[in-house]
Each structure stands twice: as C-alpha cells, then as structure tokens.
Amino acid sequence: AQKVTQTQTSISVVEKTTVTMDCVYETRDSSYFLFWYKQTASGEIVFLIRQDSYKKENATVGHYSLNFQKPKSSIGLIITATQIEDSAVYFCAMREVQGGRALIFGTGTTVSVSP
Amino acid sequence: EAAVTQSPRNKVTVTGGNVTLSCRQTNSHNYMYWYRQDTGHGLRLIHYSYGAGNLQIGDVPDGYKATRTTQEDFFLLLELASPSQTSLYFCASSDARAPLFGEGTRLSVL
Q1: Using CA atoms, how far apart are residues B11 and A55, in angstroms rounded to an integer?
Q2: I need a labelling partner for A82 at 20 to 30 A (CA). Which of A37, B15, B46, B102 fits?
C-alpha cells in the first residue's frame, strides 16, 4: 500500500535563509509522481512542484527545488531565499502510475518565516 | 482557466442529517478525489474516481458514499451525518501531472 510520511511537524526560519523539509514514501510501483503542495493561511491548497520517478534530475521551480533520493524513497523540498509569505503548511504527496492511482498525502510540515 | 469548484463552502447540519457536497471541474481531468482534512491528520482520501460511473474506495470511506455522474461532477454523500464527520473537505481533479484543488467545504455536524 502507498504511504507518505512527513516527520517534521514544524520548522521556524529567519527570512532570506533556506529551509529544507523531509518526506519519505512507500510504494510497490516502479513509476510514480511525487508532489509538493502549500496550504496558505486562507486554506487554499496550491501545487508547487513535481518529481517524476523516472527522472534523475531534481526538479526546480522558482525558489523551490527538490532533493530526490530514489534509493532512500525520499523527496525533500528546499526553499531558498525564504520570504514571510512562505509561511504555510507544506504537504508531500504521491501518485502511482500503474497502481490504484490514489493521490496520497503526508501529514504536513508547518513553516514559519520570521523577519 | 483550469478550475475545481466546490459547493457549498460552508454547511451546518444535525446528527443524522443528509448532506451532499458537490465538486465540479472544468479541466477535462479523468481523476477526481475527495479528502477530509483534520488537525494532525493532513489530507485523508475518502473516495476517488477515474471517470463517470466509476468509484474507488480511499483510506477513510466509512460513513461516506460518492458518485461521479459526469466527467465534470463528483459528489460526496453523508446519509447519516455524525459529529465525527465535522471536518474540512477538499475535492481535487488530476491528470496525474498536476492535481488541482477546490477551495474546500467546511462541514459542521451538531
């Protein structure tokens, strides 16, 4: 069965620094997609970045990048040059390509960015 | 523009009541999902569907029914609502590459 685990419940950083969040997953599929989402204070869930399991290169979008370590079933999110508005809850998610194709989420990491 | 629209945005009902939450997507996505979000649990999958007439069971299906009437519309039904179903509900649609979420429905069961 699929499972996504985020062990860090909260992280506090100072503005303009880098924050790293961890996520590990379990799947029996050889192909899958990994996602990171951000939930803002208003409750909106926003898609940030995706990693395809067959790609070796780490995905990067703006100041978001991923640290994909397939042998460890790990997909970390790195946010560089953090801003106050990066304060949010960040969710990791996985979707198998061939399996049940459910989109399964971790429990989230709350990031607080202070001046 | 791609969109997922949920209605109602807020709902209050009593224990034992019937509730239907609606979700419509205009993205031509095959997959649609219903989640509930509770503090400490993240987003938990209730039901999902890969097309009209199809229904797949998620991780927390007890007490919920769902129906996908068209490519665009996916409904979540609570036929005998209980206080434990008080939660924030999200719908999402996906073509596998970029799942998109609705704005959520806050349900209170008194």
Answers
A1: 43
A2: B102
Query: Cβ A107–B40 below 8 Å, yes or no?
Result: yes
How would you classify the pairing of strands A88-96 and A103-105? antiparallel
- Cα B16 from chain centroid? 19
Q: Do B31 and A103 touch (CB under 8 A)?
A: yes
CA gap A93, B18 in Å, rounded = 31
Backbone angles phi, psi at B85, to 5 degrees: -95, 5
Q: CB B5: neighbour CB atoms within 10 A?
A: 14
To the nearest whole Å, the CA of B47 is away from the closest chain A CA by 9
User: What is the amino acid identity at position B32?
Assistant: M
pLDDT for residue B73 is more than 70: yes
At residue A62, φ and ψ (nearest 5 deg) are 60, -130
pLDDT of residue A96: 84
Chain B's closest residue to A89, CA to CA, is: B42
DSSP of A53-113: TT--SPPEETTEEEEEEGGGTEEEEEE-S--GGG-EEEEEEEEESSS---EEE---EEEEE
